[in-house]
Structure prediction request, 309 residues.
Amino acid sequence: MIAGSQVTGRLGAIAVRNVLFDEPMSAHTSMGVGGRADALAFPDTDEELCHLISFLRREGIPFLPVGNGTNLIVRDGGYRGVLVSLERLRKLEIARVEGSGDALVHAQAGVSFAGLVDLSLRESLTGMEFCAGIPGSVGGGVRMNAGAWGQEVKDIISSVTILDALGRIGDMVRKDLLFEYRNLDLPAGAIITGATFRLAKGDSAAIRERVSEIMAKRKTRHPLSFRSAGSVFKNPPGNTAGKMIEEAGLKRFRIGGAEISEKHANFIVNRGGATAADVIALIDTVRERILGARGVLLEPELKIIGDEI
Ligand SMILES: Cc1cc2nc3c(=O)[nH]c(=O)nc-3n(C[C@H](O)[C@H](O)[C@H](O)COP(=O)(O)OP(=O)(O)OC[C@H]3O[C@@H](n4cnc5c(N)ncnc54)[C@H](O)[C@@H]3O)c2cc1C
Prediction:
């Protein structure tokens, strides 16, 4: 195991302008729980990212890319190594496709889905509406194949730009990308640096109406006044995790500060003072109860990293 101070000292050797050492990840995740990362680095450019990653590989320092932390729980013991946030990589470009009203929108990994939806509204481009209200970044959203209302990122992706394990940046086109439910199967060690979405010319009033309708549905159905990481479990075939948890009588079931939402049973909310251990214990309890009652082992959708205390 690498001690925090060891990583800190070794990281000082490279020129990453923005690094937070011994940083509490509760401040960088939507659930608001979790321990400290030895370092949380924010490269400003692709070049800085490449230098950072090749340095970390050379030194054998563990690392992991993170986006907006809206699908992420860091255990209370923290993360030994460097979490690499791509939030400062925020370039956004549009290219019109000749002969059609379609557009290719290239977004760097740190662009938020909210920013993409805004752009699609401004430019009257349709296809992104289902992403309204998903609080993730392009990097995290593509990695998770985020989806809602019957659509997924895979439906609008044209290509994904990755930094591979050999330090090369290149594009992978849609036909070579293995998307599945809430997952993009990436080559080992690959980091998404950006993605290109193909959107069609649409009617701006219709796009706006669909976005408003989706935002209104989210407000009614999701517990947005509490901190959460969105849906905790993937839906098993032929059912929804939320329905199964509700039918098991687990709404408002609580461990420490973590509670199964009364509004939507597939959300765990932080009622204040929750720890990552509370959230994980609640996840384990739900899985056991549903396995016992229904014979179905729910698979978590959110990602859990780091060490226990
Ligand atoms: C209120 C709320 C509502 C939500 N609604 C939805 C919804 O409707 N549909 C849905 O699918 N999700 C939903 N989510 C979950 C979450 O927003 C999505 O999964 C989102 O895509 C995660 O993006 P992120 O940038 O926050 O990723 P993070 O949480 O930071 O990371 C998620 C995973 O992606 C990896 N990752 C991040 N960036 C990169 C990168 N650049 N390259 C490679 N891997 C990377 C991380 O290592 C981690 O494994 C919701 C969450 C909340 C809090």
User: Anything to note?
Assistant: The chain has three domains: 4-85, 92-208, 223-305.
